[in-house]
Recover the amino acids of this structure.
């Protein structure tokens, strides 16, 4: 008998975290590695958020268990924030506070998906989605959209993927890993298609505030009148530079939230009260710090796209959201570099790490081979140095 259950043994490790861990280990060993792997802002959490956490840590009220579904004040703030940012009216009993956005993803699929259910997942996709679907007994049906489509799927592609077993559509805009942002019209059309076919829509909106140029965030829930079967996933990690605080949430119909809260009561219980109070300060506060970070992200975005497009064999569309560049490297594969001939993006990523000491995530983590994801949520100097090392290596 196996020591590990087949269910858990089948889970693929998080490729993004694996790349980040390897880069940090090499750095700790004294190698000058530059990491483009983790989607983590390099800014500190805003000072007013930290102060709220310090104050909460001193308050004995927050030294005890609290409601599994979250502190009432935070849930009320999430309701107000959802109305402000997405134009959606929800009630407090439609909100569940989770241990980061990942637990919201896990809870959503565990609550909605039965064995044999299919979930349509536009690709490239964040590496965790298929694993969370599989853990719920579901099947991922990926629909790939390449750079020639701006990494955005069409209605025709979605309809071709739909079967009698399709229960849900995963919709992510702005996208990790591509930075693609669907227009309001595209979002409304996809929402109407899902409504027509009575599908659940699980929408991850964690990058809602990170859009550039003419792109605007549009919640599929607000763009689609009558769409009741929708679950909104979100959190404070990316917007407020709070990846380590681990506070996310899901918004859904009351019966779904009640079931997901029951699940969470048997797994983690309540989110850390101190972190919840920090999240309350973030969610209820101004967006000034967010706007300042966006200025830096926008500058780095432009620099990264220009630098990557100067690498032979690379073609990098300009991302319109989040803080990732998803570069097409198919033109660089099958060529010899210093005696090595990478045939896949995974082999190319390994070669770049070993020879240029730059960590990138290969496309195999997000769908088909032939692409690399690089986060530009790091310092300007490291960004410029890392891209230049890649250019020199492959020139």
């Amino acid at each position: 008998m196996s020591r590990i259950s087949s269910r858990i043994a089948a889970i693929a490790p998080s490729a993004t975290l694996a790349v980040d861990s390897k880069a940090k280990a090499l750095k700790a060993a004294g190698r000058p590695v530059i990491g483009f792997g983790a989607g983590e802002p390099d800014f500190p959490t805003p000072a007013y958020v930290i102060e709220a956490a310090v104050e909460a840590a001193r308050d004995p009220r927050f030294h005890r268990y609290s409601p599994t579904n979250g502190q009432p004040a935070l849930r009320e703030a999430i309701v107000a924030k959802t109305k402000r940012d997405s134009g959606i009216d929800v009630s407090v009993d439609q909100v569940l506070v989770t241990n980061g956005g990942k637990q919201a993803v896990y809870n959503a699929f565990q609550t909605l998906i039965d064995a044999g259910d299919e979930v349509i997942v536009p690709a490239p996709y964040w590496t965790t989605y298929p694993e969370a679907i599989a853990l719920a007994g579901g099947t991922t049906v990926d629909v790939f959209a390449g750079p020639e489509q701006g990494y955005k799927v069409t209605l025709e592609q979605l309809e071709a993927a739909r079967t009698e077993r399709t229960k849900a559509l995963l919709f992510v805009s702005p996208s990790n890993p591509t930075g693609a942002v669907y227009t309001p019209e595209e979002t409304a059309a996809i929402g109407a298609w899902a409504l027509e076919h009575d599908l659940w829509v699980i929408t991850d909106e964690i990058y809602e505030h990170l859009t550039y140029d003419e792109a605007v965030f549009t919640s599929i829930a607000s763009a689609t009148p009558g769409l009741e079967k929708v679950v909104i996933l979100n959190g404070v990690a990316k917007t407020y530079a709070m990846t380590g605080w681990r506070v996310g949430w899901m918004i859904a119909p009351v019966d779904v939230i009640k079931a997901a809260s029951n699940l969470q009561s048997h797994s983690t219980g309540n989110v850390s009260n101190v972190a919840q109070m920090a999240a309350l300060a973030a969610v209820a506060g101004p967006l000034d710090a967010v706007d300042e970070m966006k200025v830096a992200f926008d500058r780095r975005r432009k620099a990264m796209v220009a630098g990557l497009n100067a690498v032979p064999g690379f073609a990098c569309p300009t991302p319109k959201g989040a803080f990732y560049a998803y570069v097409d490297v198919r033109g660089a594969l099958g060529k010899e570099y210093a005696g090595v001939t990478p045939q896949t993006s995974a082999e190319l990523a390994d070669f770049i790490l070993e020879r240029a000491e730059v960590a990138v995530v290969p496309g195999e983590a997000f769908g088909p081979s032939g692409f690399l994801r690089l986060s530009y949520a790091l310092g300007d100097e490291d960004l410029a140095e890392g891209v230049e090392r890649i250019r020199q290596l492959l020139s």
The chain has a mean pLDDT of 95. Residues 67 and 270 are 6 Å apart (CA to CA).
